[in-house]
Design a protein that fits this description.
disordered C terminus; alpha/beta; about 20% strand
């Protein structure tokens, strides 16, 4: 839905439609209880059923929540609190606006109104003066000595190629207007205000280890908190005098200059670059304007010039002032290359304090290292880092990677359409605290990533004292918070990821969460399989008059929350929302999550479709509420399709309500429509040619996700393409370049169907594609060759297996084709520190079926990532009898860690009947008395595969009735239902481990 919306809208259309910025642009007047536009018909039905069970209506969610006074509450925050069911539509429009023009998005969030500057991003058209000596002469005249520039500097500028000369002169002409906007933004500040912001801002406003443990509620006089007249309060008062939207106008001009510089580099010939041997520049009252060489340049501790266009090469930037702003204006444009930005200090890499800063890097695999207020961050200003392509590594301390306090901070990682490949754009973001789409009072923060399988990490530095000193603050990944101690509301923080299978790892306060009149949004709008892991107040969680939203568009996702509140949870007049729109998902927590509300909050978890698992260790889960202060709370869980499982005893296809205002509904999967059988595909006549427009229509239908109402159309389109047979192959070859899961599934079925009649033609096509120059085509051909069992591709598969960029795609094919020569490479992959690569290698070893792989697979049972243990267990089971004895020995070895033993039991459960050792049920039954509850539960899961065997049933019945641990007892009861045939067997029916099984989360591992 969101993708179609984005394709149809431009920046001006978004501005005109008034998506979600301020009350002026988005009128809230509507009929009470009107259907929210982002809910499906099934979700509306489930919501009305659930609320009806408790005698409630949708209007009951709209009770007043902004009950405490606070200064500077943004209209979007008030709207989210007042009408929670509208938050979905607002979040979608907010994501659309952020995607098209991030600066416009931030402008609206802070109440900028209709007077938005021109569009941001994209190459401009032909530049004035390009090739026009008269125009250049006029420009030079405008910067003559009467403007303060020396003739010798102008002579150096005049020696530049035309397009570069234009950029330097245009920057000089633009700077006075930029400075005027910045001066107006700071016009209300006194000299004392500036001193306070510069000396106290970072130390007392930003440091979580100092601020939060020392929280002391202020007395209330006349309905408003009274702040002490100390440095913190005075600093905050000074910050709030800044006119952030005037800084946005200055940043808009710098963005235009940045893209003009990129265009100038693009238009400069190689000959001109070779002739440019030295850096040349123009010294202005705002700093030096310079052009760097095309080689590998190094900018040392003194930093780069304030206004720099770097023409290429693998450059190194060190020291302060590199692309940042410290009480001023900075602009850095780097035109490609694998660059290193090593700036551990403050205000760097598109970071601003009392100023405006823009860093544009037009490509390459770049490394960014920063300290405080860096990588697209601002305090009283606007900071933007825009990176256009490559696989980048971003690391920073705090207030970084899209963070704003009384300002706007944006990190925009782009990937041009022309360079988007399946293996591209895998970025890594790591911040200790306050980042990755973070906002405080008067601020907006955005991290926008357009492409790739990305890793986001936040935490590990600042202990969460005194409640959980072993946990740490994150305040990241779509998080916003006010400054409660002084009664000031928060801003709007957002993380937007548009594609890929991503990992979000955090601790306290993260992943679409908010506190004290803030609005935090994490929107993952791709269809990848995402993994979310956090400690608490996360994943659509909010506390204290705030709103947190997590939207996930699709894929088989996993949400792990170790300590609660989240997964659609809210406390103290807050709104917390998690909306997952497809896939077979897993929600794992201890307590206080999955559609719960405490103390007058509204918590919603809405799951649109798929076979889902909701698991927790203790109560108060899965549609539960707790009243307080004389008002009710509303915790809501809605599941609208699929076969689902609930640890709290919720029933598939049932509706429930609790006396403490917790409600839920699980809609039964509707029966398949009894429509007439689809018409058989048309058989093309001899010599008939497949028209291109007909092919495009058929393939668009064939490559839809094969779910729900789309199934008949998908089946009919695929059958028709199969009927075209060999004549469809040239057109299908063109689709191998489009690396997307539904397209690969469609190609697999269509090519398999054609191969039944025309196998030689299909084999020829795949062999040709295996030597194609386009990496996505080769990758697709590798996977399809394995799926279709093309033995003729063995040599090409083995060759690709030795290429680092192709090994992940060749490995599944090598396993499927059972190529014994691949064993050493697959074993090396299985031991990789990159857990995603290791998973590919482990699964391929299981498919290979070579007993020599057993030691590698048994070692993988001890890996710290549970996905690898699961994959290793399945792969061991695929080896059959060879693995049975070692698996059983590990399951019974009490000296081993519980995760290893549980993984071994998972493998035993998947053994074929012929591979099971004699007396296995009795040995497993013995583990029902193990000291570890997790092992007892895992043993029950394994026993549930021995249907009809009394040696399994009788001990399992006893254990399910008498186990002393409630969680283990519940899992044993579920295993008994599986054994009896009352519940379908799922290999993931096991106790999950807490975040302790992820030692790599904050240690920099793979």
């Amino acid at each position: 839905m969101v993708r179609r919306t984005l394709l149809g809208l431009g920046a001006l259309a978004l501005v005109a439609c008034g998506g979600g910025g301020s009350g002026a642009q988005e009128p809230e007047a509507r009929e009470k209880g009107a259907a929210p536009s982002a809910l499906s018909a099934e979700e509306e039905q489930a919501l009305d059923l659930a609320l009806g069970m408790a005698g409630l209506t949708r209007g009951d969610l709209e009770f007043r929540k902004d009950v405490y006074p606070a200064e500077g509450v943004l209209p979007v925050v008030r709207a989210a609190l007042a009408q929670p069911l509208e938050a979905f539509a607002r979040a979608e429009r907010r994501a659309a606006r952020a995607h098209v023009a991030p600066l416009v998005w931030a402008w609206f969030e802070l109440g900028g109104g209709e007077a938005v500057p021109g569009g941001v991003g994209g190459f401009p058209g032909p530049l004035p003066g390009d090739g026009d000596t008269k125009g250049l002469a006029l420009l030079l005249r405008d910067v003559a000595p009467d403007k303060g520039f020396a003739q010798r500097e102008l002579a150096r500028v005049a020696a530049l190629p035309n397009v570069l000369r234009y950029w330097v002169v245009h920057v000089a002409l633009t700077l006075p207007g930029v400075e005027a906007n910045c001066a107006e933004a700071l016009g209300a500040l006194t000299a004392e205000d500036r001193r306070l912001i510069e000396s106290w801002g970072l130390r007392h406003v930003l440091a979580p280890d100092e601020e939060f443990p020392n929280f002391r509620p202020r007395p209330v006089q006349g309905g408003a908190p009274v702040a002490r007249p100390d440095a913190e309060a005075a600093t905050l008062a000074a910050l709030l005098k800044v006119r952030v939207l005037k800084f946005a106008e200055a940043a808009q001009s710098l963005c235009t200059l940045a893209w003009e510089g990129a265009y100038a580099r693009q238009r400069t010939s190689d000959k001109e670059l070779k002739a440019l041997r030295t850096r040349v520049g123009l010294v202005t009252r705002y700093g030096a304007i310079a052009i760097g060489g095309a080689g590998d340049d190094v900018y040392g501790e003194t930093g780069a010039p304030p206004f720099l266009l770097e023409l290429g090469g693998n450059d190194v930037y060190r020291g302060r002032g590199t692309g940042g702003a410290d009480r001023g204006i900075r602009l850095l444009v780097d035109s490609g290359g694998d660059d290193l930005y090593d700036c551990p200090g403050e205000y760097s890499l598109g970071g601003a304090l009392l100023g405006a800063a823009v860093l544009l890097d037009t490509g390459g695999n770049d490394t960014y290292r920063g300290g405080l207020v860096t990588q697209g961050a601002a305090i009283a200003g606007v900071g933007l880092l825009e990176d256009c392509g490559g696989e980048d590594d971003y690391r920073a301390e705090r207030h970084a990677q899209g963070a704003g306090l009384a300002g706007i901070g944006i990190l925009w990682d782009r990937e041009p359409q022309a360079t988007r490949k399946r293996e591209s754009g895998r970025d890594r973001y790591q911040v200790a605290c306050f980042g990755q789409g973070f906002a405080r009072t008067g601020g907006a923060g955005l991290l926008l990533d357009e492409w790739g399988n990305d890793l986001y990490q936040a935490g590990g530095a600042y202990p969460y004292r005194p409640a959980h000193p072993h946990r740490h603050y994150s305040h990241a990944q779509g998080y916003a918070i006010g400054i409660r101690e002084f009664g000031h509301a928060g801003g709007v923080g957002m993380l937007l990821d548009l594609a890929g299978s991503d990992r979000y790892l955090a601790e306290m306060y993260a992943q679409g969460a908010a506190c004290w009149y803030g609005l935090g949004v994490l929107a993952d709008l791709g269809s990848g399989d995402d993994h979310y892991a956090a400690t608490g107040i996360a994943q659509g969680g909010a506390v204290h008059l705030a709103a947190g939203v997590l939207l996930d568009e699709g894929g088989d996702d996993e949400y792990v929350l170790s300590d609660g509140l989240g997964q659609g949870g809210a406390h103290d007049f807050a709104v917390g929302i998690l909306h997952d729109r497809g896939g077979n998902d897993r929600y794992l927590t201890r307590a206080g999550a999955q559609g719960i509300a405490l103390t007058n909050g509204v918590g919603l978890l809405i799951e649109r479709s798929g076979d889902d698992l909701y698991a927790g260790h203790t109560g108060h889960l899965q549609g539960a509420g707790r009243p307080g202060r004389g008002l009710g709370s509303l915790g809501i869980l809605l599941d609208c399709g699929g076969t689902d499982r609930y640890s709290e005893g919720r029933l598939e296809g049932a509706t429930w309500a609790t006396t403490d205002r917790g409600v839920g509904a699980d809609l039964p999967t509707p029966p398949a429509p009894s429509a007439a059988a689809p018409a058989p595909p048309r058989v093309p006549g001899p010599g008939e040619v497949l028209p291109p427009e007909e092919f495009e229509h058929l393939f668009a239908e064939a490559s839809l996700w094969n779910v729900g109402e789309a199934r008949p159309a998908v089946a009919a389109a695929r059958a028709q393409l199969v009927a075209w047979g060999e004549r469809a192959l040239p057109a299908l070859r063109g689709k191998l370049v489009l690396w997307q899961p539904p397209i690969l599934l469609a190609l697999d079925e269509i090519l398999s169907g054609i191969a039944r009649e025309k196998r030689p033609a299909v084999v020829k096509l795949l062999l040709e594609c295996l030597s194609a120059p386009e990496p996505p085509v080769r990758a697709s051909a590798l996977l399809l060759s394995g799926k279709l069992g093309v033995r003729e591709a063995s040599e090409a598969v083995l060759a690709a297996l030795r290429e680092p960029s192709m090994s992940r795609f060749a490995a599944p094919a090598a396993g499927a084709l059972r190529l014994a020569e691949a064993l050493p490479v697959l074993q090396a992959m299985a031991g990789s520190a990159d857990w995603t690569e290791a998973a590919v290698g482990i699964r391929a070893l299981g498919a290979l079926g070579d007993a020599r792989a057993l030691p590698t697979l048994l070692a993988a049972l001890g890996r710290p990532v549970f996905q690898l243990r699961d994959a290793a267990a399945e792969a061991c089971a695929a080896l059959g009898k060879e693995a049975a004895g070692p698996l059983l020995a590990r399951a019974e070895d009490r000296t081993l860690a519980s995760p290893i033993r549980a993984a071994a039991l998972l493998g035993l459960a998947q053994l074929d009947a012929a591979a099971r050792p004699a007396g296995l049920p009795g040995r497993l039954a013995g583990l029902l008395a193990d000291p570890e509850p997790a092992i007892r539960a895992a043993a029950g899961d394994s026993l549930s595969s021995f249907r009809g065997d009394p040696a399994a049933r009788e001990p399992l019945e006893r254990a399910a009735a008498a186990d002393p641990d409630p969680s283990a007892r519940r899992r044993l009861a579920e295993a008994l239902e599986v054994l009896s045939g009352r519940r379908p067997r799922r290999t993931d029916e096991r106790l999950f481990s807490n975040l302790a099984e992820y030692p790599e989360l904050f240690g920099g591992g793979g």
